[in-house]
Inverse folding.
């Protein structure tokens, strides 16, 4: 089952739901969601003990060349 919720940083409901499900998939809007906002959402989920499954980029413009696959993710990113 998939449960959709409001953004993590806007309302407490999302953080409460994050503790009640098996995992959280963060969804960001490509080219719109600032990196620091996505990082704050991830930190917010982790702060309540949520299991983060990963992230999905919505509405990504693949022709722009800004998105690429990288197996390496660092804390600074």
């Amino acid at each position: 089952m998939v449960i959709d919720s409001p953004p993590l940083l806007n309302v407490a409901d999302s953080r409460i739901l994050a503790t009640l499900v098996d995992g959280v998939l963060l969804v960001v809007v490509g080219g719109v969601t600032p990196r620091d906002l996505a990082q704050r959402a991830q930190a917010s989920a982790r702060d309540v003990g949520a299991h983060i499954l990963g992230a999905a980029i919505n509405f990504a413009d693949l022709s722009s060349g800004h998105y690429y696959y990288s197996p390496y993710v660092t804390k600074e990113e």
Summary: The helical segments are 12-18, 35-47.
